[in-house]
Design a protein that fits this description.
about 220 residues, alpha+beta, seven-stranded antiparallel beta sheet, 7 helices, globular
């Protein structure tokens, strides 16, 4: 009875809940199994229950021939087919324990050792709105904001804002305005990268320990 009461108190106080919020239905450090079984883990309405769809889809000789034949096609149906085929290829790579990325429209999900370590979003909206939403979801204002300047081949200089969250417990976040507008508009989309802190630290350490190209 005491153990049961303690568990109830922990659940009520929130200690049993994860500290990493969901973004687009997914959470940093979730497994590939959790990703595929979530509401967002579907491709063209096909949900990945039992992971039975992709292996059969990729092994089908008809699909293999169509994928090779549509390499240069710009038809909508062919583009959708190729996207589905390539997502299946990524799923198989990730489930085998290898590093791989699942791309779904304007969203990219990077997996290492079968765990989601990075989410990248391209959001065609105002920078201030995006950073406000991030601050609300993660419970903190950015630790740093800056203006990044780009210069094109004609000498014109463009200024784009960037915000960084680097003191959160589990993740590092960078939101930055892209240097190129959405095609046919004057809207500069916002790139949001959310990384597992352990993964980000390992990448930095790896870069520091990289042998010099001059040695």
């Amino acid at each position: 009875m005491k153990i049961y009461l303690c568990l109830c108190l922990l659940i009520a106080s929130g200690f049993c809940q994860t500290t990493i919020p969901e973004v687009k239905g997914h959470r940093i450090n979730e497994t590939i199994d959790q990703f595929l079984l979530s509401d967002q883990g579907s491709i063209d309405g096909v949900t990945w229950f039992a992971h039975s769809f992709c292996p059969e889809y990729l092994a089908n000789p008809k699909n293999q021939r169509k994928y090779a034949r549509t390499t240069t096609s710009s038809e909508d149906e062919d583009l959708r087919f190729r996207a589905r085929f390539e997502k299946c290829q990524a799923v198989n790579t990730i489930e085998a324990g290898n590093r791989g990325a699942i791309r779904d429209g304007l969203q990219t999900y990077l997996f290492v050792d079968r765990k989601l370590v990075m989410i990248q979003l391209i959001i065609p909206d105002d920078f201030s709105k995006v950073t406000q939403d991030l601050a609300s979801k993660f419970g903190a204002r950015p630790d740093a904001t800056e203006i990044v300047r780009y210069q094109n081949g004609f000498g014109a200089v463009y200024e784009h804002p960037r915000a960084t969250w680097n003191t959160l417990k589990d993740v590092i976040i960078v939101a930055s305005e892209e240097s190129s507008p959405v095609t046919g508009t004057a809207i500069f989309p916002i790139s949001v990268v959310i990384e597992d802190k352990g993964y980000a630290d390992a990448i930095v350490k790896q870069q520091k320990n990289r042998p010099s190209t001059l040695d």
